[in-house]
Input
Amino acid sequence: MLILAVFLGLELIGRVPGTLHTPLMSGTNAIHGIVLLGAMIVLGSADEWWLRAVGFVAVVLGAGNVFGGFIVTDRMLEMFKRKPGAGR
Output
């Protein structure tokens, strides 16, 4: 099932035109922000040490995913800016 999901994901992403990547990344960042908020809430209510450790790892990885998404979105937006002195 995992191999099918990976194959389907690669096919779908490969067929998305470049102009749609930025809006898709913005939506994905919003979803990851909600996941990060949920991980922080769960981490705050964890009682056992191993739950805190797993929650901390989830928060760190989720934060890295959100910030990485913002970096990718910024790079995509840079592609659409006009170069100084080019064109009209």
Notes: The chain is about 80% helix and 0% strand. The chain has a mean pLDDT of 81. Helices lie at 2-14, 18-45, 49-79. The radius of gyration is 18 Å.
